[in-house]
Please model this.
Amino acid sequence: MSRVGVAMLGYRFMGNAHSRALAAARQLGAALEPELVSLSGRDAEAVEEARARLGWAEATTDWREQVADDRVHLFVNGGPNALHAEPSIAAARAGKHVLCEKPLALSADEAKTMWRAAEDAGVVHATGFNYRFVPAVRLARELVRSVELGDIVHFRARYLQSWGWDAPPADWHFDPAIAGTGAIGDLGTHVIDLARYLVGEIRSVGATVRTFVPGRRVDDSFVATIEFETGAVGTLEASRLARGRINHNAFELNGTKGSVAFDQERMNELQISDGGAFRTVLEHGDWWPPGHIVGWGDTFIYEYLHLLRAIAGEGTVAPHGASFEDGYRCALVCDAVLRSSESGRKEEL
Amino acid sequence: MSRVGVAMLGYRFMGNAHSRALAAARQLGAALEPELVSLSGRDAEAVEEARARLGWAEATTDWREQVADDRVHLFVNGGPNALHAEPSIAAARAGKHVLCEKPLALSADEAKTMWRAAEDAGVVHATGFNYRFVPAVRLARELVRSVELGDIVHFRARYLQSWGWDAPPADWHFDPAIAGTGAIGDLGTHVIDLARYLVGEIRSVGATVRTFVPGRRVDDSFVATIEFETGAVGTLEASRLARGRINHNAFELNGTKGSVAFDQERMNELQISDGGAFRTVLEHGDWWPPGHIVGWGDTFIYEYLHLLRAIAGEGTVAPHGASFEDGYRCALVCDAVLRSSESGRKEEL
Amino acid sequence: MSRVGVAMLGYRFMGNAHSRALAAARQLGAALEPELVSLSGRDAEAVEEARARLGWAEATTDWREQVADDRVHLFVNGGPNALHAEPSIAAARAGKHVLCEKPLALSADEAKTMWRAAEDAGVVHATGFNYRFVPAVRLARELVRSVELGDIVHFRARYLQSWGWDAPPADWHFDPAIAGTGAIGDLGTHVIDLARYLVGEIRSVGATVRTFVPGRRVDDSFVATIEFETGAVGTLEASRLARGRINHNAFELNGTKGSVAFDQERMNELQISDGGAFRTVLEHGDWWPPGHIVGWGDTFIYEYLHLLRAIAGEGTVAPHGASFEDGYRCALVCDAVLRSSESGRKEEL
Amino acid sequence: MSRVGVAMLGYRFMGNAHSRALAAARQLGAALEPELVSLSGRDAEAVEEARARLGWAEATTDWREQVADDRVHLFVNGGPNALHAEPSIAAARAGKHVLCEKPLALSADEAKTMWRAAEDAGVVHATGFNYRFVPAVRLARELVRSVELGDIVHFRARYLQSWGWDAPPADWHFDPAIAGTGAIGDLGTHVIDLARYLVGEIRSVGATVRTFVPGRRVDDSFVATIEFETGAVGTLEASRLARGRINHNAFELNGTKGSVAFDQERMNELQISDGGAFRTVLEHGDWWPPGHIVGWGDTFIYEYLHLLRAIAGEGTVAPHGASFEDGYRCALVCDAVLRSSESGRKEEL
Model:
């Protein structure tokens, strides 16, 4: 098995998730063996603590060192949103493959620049839409594509959390200079990406964006209707202010022949109707015996197994995984959500 | 107990539901004892069969006879939508109290005329939004009004059925001359009414209306975002084309302190969050011991117990029940849904 | 439609349930039209109040008058358990058809005497196991009998409530002279009857009966393993001390080809597996459109529609309904539960 | 961080689960750093393939080499049941700490010998009851011990799977020489261990064991009633023949003040009643943000974090983890299940 040197920017939540997945990927027969070369972040002490615990060889406070490092073949960007574009572009231009967390950028324009840079550099590029790698979500897509559900007419999705009520105002998620948007970029991008992944390109959006918490400088929530290029219609919603909802990333799609419904909090289950009553299918992946369910962290393992195959030349990131193009097209929808809320009109994409 | 003479137009689905409820109301201590005076419909033979079975004293093919009948104090209009306005107005002008099924009228203008006529006549008037009388829905409203949930920020509701795919084209529900609209009037009015009942007046609507079945002359579905006068935002949806969904009339509302969620298919359950995890409360009404659940037909009994109290001078139809004003205000939203779908803009009410 | 004169003993919980069902049965095309002749109970004032409200022609404090009344063709015994045998036997001997609530008697011996008396008198006899008339339970039986599930190997059922913790000690349910047993007769009989209805005769029982509440003179709960004559095995349980459980009458059965699962609190749903994933089927009966669910009270309407057909000579009470023989065979199992708990052995029936 | 050399017997299902957990433990701050010294199994080629993939330094076909290896401090026995006793005892006598999969042994006598050997050797010993390490199960135990639920009166548990119908007869699970028992040892031990973990010692068992599949030489299922030393009563059941059930390891316990209910297929959820309605609590552990759920494989990581703390001298395996004593006491109950099924009597422990 060939090795692929990895460098990562970001050592907290995403640092943990990616590091654990990289360590596990090898045991699950990854196409390439990831070698954890270096971890970066601004707080030298904290990065060093994370490096030692998570198994990275070196720590640094300068992502430019990582981008310039010949041992590095894959650059993973798990930093704050405002730090997605520059390091990712630099890495691509240095010939590194790049996996960047979502939202890919602070705007569609910025995302397009990233996509172009990666394409021009000829590197493998991926956006971290990990919910595509939930086994039950993948099953949903297979059912759609196998025409078992017929033509899709409706899609409805919502991503609801509640921590926005009680979070400290200084949380970086509420700083537009770092996060860009609020619920739109953090949660909305996931449901937009799932809409595109499962149904297809979105043609128009009619949205209302709202900030409810006094003093908050980013959006708390949005609601939207969407039209797909196929003619299907749907609703999208994201909020950090839905009391009682913890990580409720849920969708349902209805076709001319059948339907599926999913909720991330029960991520091993897919509700499937072939026209009649819904049945609850346990779809837990291929590691354990039936019914021995996988967890949220496992989606990152599937993501890396997929990405490492693409880097090894076995297939491509898209269409099952999300490329920078997917990150860009998602950002187009986010921009349309904001535009529509301003204009009071449906906005075409 | 005083008696109230009742005449009903309509003898099929709604005829069954209302007749059973009227018979049961007496046993549950109704304020007035309903006397089933006459039943009307266009098919003499079928009306007579229904009359004998359902316990009405007389059958007729002319609702004008009912409206002119001195023995009649309450006129119940369960006829097709296109036959809501004229008989209801005539009954009111003849001094009869009126309960008319939903949608109240084919347009907001027509509904306003009905409301005005009933007000001018000084009679008790009610629109048949029976889901207000589901015990769990009433509990939801009590929680909203008792400020246990705080200020409401989000409301989302959908009413999904699937029979629209396989129904015969000749079904009256698809004839605009009889039904007016499709999913909007049939299903959408229920979710619009619940939005108003639970949260308050709707200020604007951004909607997309769709007909998917070739040759169909009414809408199959719509999706909408709404803004309430309170500042809350939400999504509404109705469809007859959601495979696997039978009678999925479901809503969720989130407040600054808590949330509730409801699904008509489990109509004895209310999901309640006081900020933390949802608990499943069985709210089955007051007839049976705890956990001995009520059914859909029982909502009509509650509706009549409430209406008969209002006729007896004990309280008013609104705000717990729906008056003609509620039927009218709901129709305003339906009209805005259609307008917005045409204009591509949010429409103010 | 011919008429059948009905007299009822009992005017509280069961009086309400039966009276409402009798009134509704006519509107649903009952084979015979029930005429509510007389209602009896010990408290003259309370009986008169109930009579007037529930629509009975006369009230009496002496059930012997009812049994001797020529206008009465059907005697309904909804009195306390200790008053099941004597009036029911007297009614049968007087040529009245008899519907007696469960548990049929205080012991299997007493139940057998009742059964024999009814058979000797040649009258129609029924035990009030109303859960047989839940549409979803009937569907479960049809699936069993149609061999869609194959041979049944497992049956597990529990009937859990929680009111036993907080109920006043003077409640008649805790008085062995009136109630006989506690959870066994009240709740256990339902799960035993469903076991027999769905799987077949029980061959042996190994049980532990427990009273937890100090001073209580009847059982609070029992647990049991059972063997069926077919070779299937199962567990049965009943308790009034299961905090959080309101009316949790639930069963599951597994066959060589498939399974079904049911919970009375969601009585319109049947979980069905044809070997693979369970699907949730809404089975709400035949009165309303799909998904418009029925309630607990509606089971009594189905029970009367069935009984009135049997009285009219259209079919028999068993096997779909429960006859006195079923009440007796259920009592045999109850007796075996008590014997086994004493002996520490599996008891054969 | 000090290192602890690990050797493992078994390289298939359990080999995968343990190897992944050992690799992950370090990243989660384990008290000692596990070093994967050697992996053993009978098929040299297959062991070598697993070794390379799972990250072990050496492969061997002789567990005796592992037991004699000075670099090894912890011996993990994930071999077939018949190979639990001898290697585990040898390892303990060689001074190795031992983690042995469940069922600990083929009989209570054998288990007792293992327990005694480990105790005499003074090593840390653990039985692989990984469901104790499900975060929601641990929360259940905390609620029990904090007396929030009051005194427990009822416990009911079942572990249902369905693969027993279609499995090839040659599967080792059906060979008594290798597996010992069937559903009892494989599934029943888990529910017995959870009963002991959550409620306490079992005093008596009344059970029926059944083999339904023709030609099968081990049990397919058992049903049992149990009495605890505390006076609580319960039911236990395990089956490999429950169509539609995949990995349904579920329990409920009811106390004088509250209840909890759990199902392994939704292992991040605990249903909690404080006397009133059940609420669904997401309890996913402490790695990810709320609602980002863990999977079945993660229970092994928690198990190792706990065991490595015990080996490091920080606390003991019991009572949160299962020691060999727990494996032995569980085996006593298994033996009583078999005895009771033979005798037809409740068997005391």
